[in-house]
Amino acid sequence: MTDQICSEAECTSWYLYLVETAAGQLYCGITLDVNRRFQEHCSNGRRTARFLRGKGPLLLRFAALAGTHGDALRAEIQVKKLSRAQKLRLISGDRALSLRLSLSPVTELMITS
User: Which residues pair with 28 in a beta bridge?
Assistant: First the structure.
């Protein structure tokens, strides 16, 4: 038993990620497990995001620790409002942009299909 008052979703670390399609389009999502979610997208199955179906091969271009579920949702909304150029800056490691979005990039999660 734990003495935590928050729910499991609130106490678990959520991640924000960016996936690039074969055509160069960028998809933003959030998850508790980046590698599992990326593999689901690559499988082109029932759990693949509709936007990504049939658009492979896919590349995981960016992953960052976003905090609680609410933090991750807010960060996802902010990232989706960014221009393509700003998203590419985020991918390339623009620390100021990451800090502004309250994201902590996680390079060890970067994998490709």
Answer: 18
